[in-house]
Each structure stands twice: as C-alpha cells, then as structure tokens.
Amino acid sequence: MPAMTEADPTDRRQPWAVELDFDRRTVRPIALADAGASMAAGRFVWVDLHPDTLHAAARDLEVFGVPEEVIEDALAGDPATQHARYPHCLHMVLSGCRLRDRDFELQRVDVTVGERFLLTVHADRVEFVEGVKRDLPEDFAHHAQTPSFLIYELWDHLLDRYILVQDQFEERVARLQQRLIGAVDEDLFAEIGELAADLVHFRKVLLPARAVLTDLATRRSRFVSDATQPYLHNMVGTVERVLQDLLADREILSDALNLHVSAVGHRTNVIMQRLTVVSVLFLPLTFLVGVYGMNFDNMPELHWRWGYAAFWGVTAAITGGLLAFLARKKLL
User: Fold this and answer.
1) Mean pLDDT rounded to a whole number for the chain
2) Which of 16, 29, 53, 234 is deepest in the core (most CB within 10 A)?
3) Upper half-sphere CA count for residue 322 (Cβ side, 13 Å)
4) pTM of this prediction exceeds 0.90
C-alpha cells in the first residue's frame, strides 16, 4: 500500500486529498485537480481544505456539486454541531474541542458527504481529523465496507476527544475540590467560575452531537449505509455517558463549593459565639464601672472603708457565676 503523504503541516491552506479504492482496499494521495477523474473511475475521494482556499478551489470543487449555502456556511458559521440533508449530499458541522491550560476552545469542522466524495473544511489543525488521517490506511484496509466508514471514523475520533476533554475536566474538578479544603483566595473562586462556565459550554456541545448522531443512526439515508448505522447508534450511548460524567462533575464542584461555604459559616459562628461570651462577661462589669464612675457627691460606697474590696468581690462573684453558667450550657 502506498505511504500516506500529507500537505506541509506548516501551511494548513494547502489542499489535502486522497483516493480510496474499496475494491482493492488501497489509499492513494492525489492532487485536488484529479478528484473528478478518480470519482469518474468509481473511486471515493476525501478532500480536506482550509476555508481560505474554498473560493480559489471553486472550479475543482464543482465536480462535487456542493450547494452554495454549504460553502457560505463553512466560511461564516458558528462552531455548533448540526447537520442538513440535501438531494446530492449530507452536510454536517462537527465541533472539535480542546483544553489549553484553562481555556476551553471549540474547532469547527464542516463535513460534506456525497456518493463519491467526502469534503472536510476547517481553519486550524484539528486533532480528531488528524487522527483519522493518521489511522486511515490501516483502518481502511481492515474495517472499511462502505464509504460511510469515513463518517464513522470521524465521529469515533471526535468522541475520543470528547472523552479526553471530559477526563481533563474531571481532573480540574478534583484539584479544585482539594484546594477548597485549605486556604482559599479570590483566584480560586475565579477559577471555579471559569470551570463551571466551561462545563456548561461543553454540555452545549454534547447535546447537539447526541441529536445529530441519533438522527444519523435512525434515519435512512443513501449517504449512511445500514451497516454503519448500528455503530453510530452505539456512539449515542457513549455521548450519554460523557454527559452523565459531565453532570456528575458539576454536582461534585457545586457540592464542594457548598461545603466550603458551610465550613466558612461554621467558623464564623464559632467566632461570633466567642465574642458573645466575652460580651456577656463584660456587660454587668461595664454596668458596675459605669455606676461607680459617676461624679455624684452623695454616693455612700465611695467613702466606705471596704468599698474597693467589695467592688472586686462583687466583680469576681459575677464573673465566676457567669462562667459557671456558660460552662453548664456548653457555650465555652
């Protein structure tokens, strides 16, 4: 089998194309201009393009018969998973994703499938597309039965990326959960807020992916073979499991934050209790000091020989009585 060659990875704008022969189980790199001849010979063609080259390659793409609205959508659309059916092709938008430090990024990939071609359009290097290219020769030789094999491969590698991203989210949740146990600063709460927003964003990616997969697996189409549909249906279960793990991570993060707030509230209550005990002890003593600190001449206790000692005796009795009372009530 010929070795697979790829366009210069430093120039993503260079078209990439291969010819797949299902009879001989061979994969052969071709030029974009030769795609029409390969299709006319009964072979299947996969072309991978950068959006900036769509207009320049318009003449070569005419042989595919891709609707104009698909081209325009690939140039200006949002990275939201969706699909549309046309008389001569099936158009899907797949949302690749990746985590770079604390940044959650989406990568749009437009996939157009016809009877004899697969056209993918994306701006940056997308890991799941590169994974399909890397594994294509071996997987094609051993597993390919129909052209919709490539649809399965794209979704399979995409779901692997979703699982990887979910595992990375799970690790971040676990780290933040541990950090909430110790000293907490404002940066930690900012990171928790970012993670919560990323989890919600990821959920918005998974829900449309589940809907598109369900439609592809259950609705008959000449672009998706009956042999491929059961495998796509199994992928729906995979998306469901990722969604369940995602919801579990959100609950764990929420419970950890609530536990931290409860712990802070408990510590505040303990401090307030201690301050209350001090206030209770000093309130009657403050009253006595206030009474005998008044500047009235007719105050008999001021001229009493044992007045000073009696004051301290009363002070000690009140303090001792209050301490005994508070200790019995378990307030100390």
Assistant:
1) 85
2) 16
3) 16
4) no
Q: How far, in Å, CA of 301 to CA of 27, rounded? A: 111
The strand ranges marked E within the chain are 16-21, 26-29, 44-49, 82-85, 90-100, 103-113, 117-121
3-class secondary structure for 252-275? HHHHHHHHHHHHHHHHHHHHHHHH
The tokens for 61 are 């793409």
- Rounded to whole angstroms, the Cα distance separating 1 from 18 reads 13
In angstroms, rounded to a whole number, what is the distance separating the alpha carbons of residues 145 and 224? 12
8 pLDDT higher than 50: no
Residue in 247, 12, 38 with CA at minimum distance from that of residue 124:
12
CB 47 within 8 A of CB 29: no
**Parallel, antiparallel or unpaired: strands 117-121 and 44-49:** parallel
Q: What architecture is domain 269-328?
A: Up-down Bundle (1.20)
Which position has the token pair 């029409």? 36
**CA nearest neighbour of 202 among 255, 245, 238:** 245
d(CA 19, CA 38): 7
